User: What shape does this take?
Amino acid sequence: MTHSAPRPRRLLVCAALALGGLFAAAAPSAVAAPEAQGPTAPTALAAPDIPLANVKAHLTELSSIAAANGGNRAHGRTGYKASIDYVKAKLDAAGFTTSVQQFTASGATGYNLIADWPGGDPNSVLMSGAHLDSVTSGAGINDNGSGSAAVLETALAVSRAQLQPTKHLRFAWWGAEELGLLGSKYYVNNLPTAERSKVSGYLNFDMIGSPNPGYFVYDDDPVIEKTLKDYFTGIGVPTEIETEGDGRSDHASFKNVGIPVGGLFTGASNSKTSAQAQKWGGTAGQAFDRCYHSSCDGTANINDTALDRNSDAIAHAIWTLGTEAPVPPGDVYENTTDVSIPDNGAAVTSTISVSGRTGNAPATLKAGVDITHTWRGDLVIDLIAPDGTAYRLKNSSSNDSADNVVATYTVNASAEAANGDWKLRVQDVAAQDTGRINGWKLTF
Assistant: This one.
């Protein structure tokens, strides 16, 4: 997991290879529903048990790679490229279609690895990922060999089962996360706009074997959150909402463009409270991971029980979300009138009038946005319900240097009457760049 230090406003990275995949859009945490209000996923196939021994064997290999390459697997170092090569070889042998995406950061070549499992609906992509790089001070076995190894072994389980998912499954291992999510940002910023509508979600797994573990679930997309919580409920393990690493791992790259995200975390440098120790065991007053970003983050820095539980939870989420029945299309209301967005000026709105419906809006109301803008990080975007309640779709960000906002956000609007005037409100909050609303739509 990366530090949360601010990044320059204009960060440039250069491509060397074409993208390995297609993608698309929906809900940020600001609009995520509470668990009780979230929609229930349709019945899906049961997931297999992920062998802990297999996950640990991958960690042993990553540790050996670090030892043979200066003690780390950091961006720009030989240990990172060797890690990519190891994971890729496993996936190639298992029948995945893999591609390595190159980018440049801090004067060195970085690599993302993308692996696609054949089959599934190409218009509904479920993605799972983890960052593969370590910091320079150590081998990075919990941060983030743990997530990388568990995602790898889950992908290999997909192959062993010869799973035939309803959704298209894609897996990714990111580079340069420790420098500011650079690999995943590069991937997302270079996604073809036309493909963004094809994604159903991104699941992120960063530090899932901390030696003094907590069991934290990302509070973002309500369906993904509920799916992960349901697994832990089923094995009698309580969970808490993840707050320590919010926005500090690769899910933020996807969340910032409106793609629905979720994930798991066992804690980093924060200390476990007495209440948490009573609930989960372990030592109160001690960090979840005392070796966070340190040389002691080796194979001994892993809690086997936490790693086993979280690996099985990953499989549960992929099997549940990846094999569920397709959701039928809803009714669409649209406004295609252009509205200019003034540079560093007042907010503007575009209105869609909804009538003839009964009851409240759904917990999965889709707001599709098409905005042209030369620096999308300047934009704050809200959906305004008929009663005036604002639902934040996108925050401004000095790190978000891409053009345009073409995304679909999922909003839990179940407290709102469906009928009435819904507004898209957009404000440019910084100077130098201009744009316009090309149109937007609501799907009930």
In short: The longest strand covers residues 121-131. Confidence is low (pLDDT under 50) at residues 3-42.
